[in-house]
Description:
The chain is an all-alpha fold. It is built from eleven helices and no strands.
Amino acid sequence: MTSLGEVFLWELLGTAILTLMGCGVVANVSLSKSLGVGGGWLLVNFGWGFAVFAGASIAEPSGAHINPAITFGLAITGDVSWGQVPVYILAQIIGAVLGAVLCWAAYKLQFDTTEAPADTRGIFCTGPTVPNAPWNLVTEIIGTFVLVLWIITNPPASPGDTPGVPDFGNAALGYAAVAFIVIGIGNSLGGPTGYAINPARDLGPRIAYAILPIRGKGSPEWGYSWVPIAGPIIGGVLAGLLALALPISS
């Protein structure tokens, strides 16, 4: 059985890799002296999807939450004890800060020489294309609801009854399956707010952006920061509550 200390370690490492690679792909397409500049929205979506794959694979011993919304959803369904929730969330936030700092370190020279330093906040955290807090909140709730409901309703696959015929559940593709869902959410629902769908993924890098010595950087936009925290948590809780009412076989 995984101890709380091990849960903390694996969640921290997994979330750090998530934000290192996720923020990294946005830096790659955004910073003017980067080889990936102009790569576009689709590259960002795929980059974040593979970041989830890498982070979740590393955090497998802890259950690979790497997202407080998932932790809350699984606590609602009883798959995680409420006493473990603070450990998961603290590890996820610290790991997200660490990953964002490592992203900055990897692109330090590009940050120093970018032609638009005031626009670098979007590398680290999300923001709405049309600011309207209630509707921005709805967007984040819906996107996270899709993610967490899919995770809860797709438990690991059991061996197929017929030899040679696999049971294609979540475990058949491993964490690559979650990556596909994240990419799909980004392509379908990410346009309005940048699809945080993960409070730690947004808050941790936002904290890092506020404290990092980035020349000419813009505001971390703390006034908006509650939306990508509250929206995903509400979405995760709603997904957990619906899952309790569904005839899901374990």
